[in-house]
Design a protein that fits this description.
Layout lengths: L2 H49 L6 E10 L13 E10 L2 E10 L6 E3 L12
Antiparallel strand pairs: 1-2, 2-3, 3-4
């Protein structure tokens, strides 16, 4: 086998490894979002029932994404979080909530329009 063939095979295996790693990362992000989505929907629904004085609300998922830590470094490591935008409607009213569900936490939280930075929170 010539040296050119060996180099081509090494490049091919490297490329295949990179593609596999990226695929796994995307799958794990989707899994993380799927795991937290039900809790985020329920939290937005409960909050909406109180805010809108209506028990017959329907939640609708508008968007979802994985939020990266705002701080990362040698000595400091932030927390990954699932972020959702959820609309609730009922009784002739509607409201949209931005929810975050930090990794490792069993709760989800509403954040204001400016996100975490407006509230002085660091995740």
């Amino acid at each position: 086998m010539s040296q050119n063939n060996i180099i081509r095979r090494m490049k091919l295996f490297t490329l295949a490894g990179v593609i596999a790693a990226l695929t796994m990362a995307c799958a794990s992000q989707a899994q993380f979002l799927n795991e937290k989505q039900g809790l985020a929907m329920q939290t937005a629904l409960t909050r909406g029932q109180t805010d809108l004085s209506c028990q017959q609300l329907s939640p609708t998922l508008i968007s979802r994404e994985v939020g990266l830590p705002s701080q990362q470094g040698t000595w400091v490591q932030g927390i990954y979080r699932a972020e959702y935008t959820i609309s609730v409607e009922g009784c002739g009213k509607s409201h949209t909530y931005r929810m975050i569900c930090p990794d490792g936490d069993i709760r989800c939280y509403e954040v204001g329009p400016g996100g975490l930075s407006d509230q002085g929170l660091q995740y």
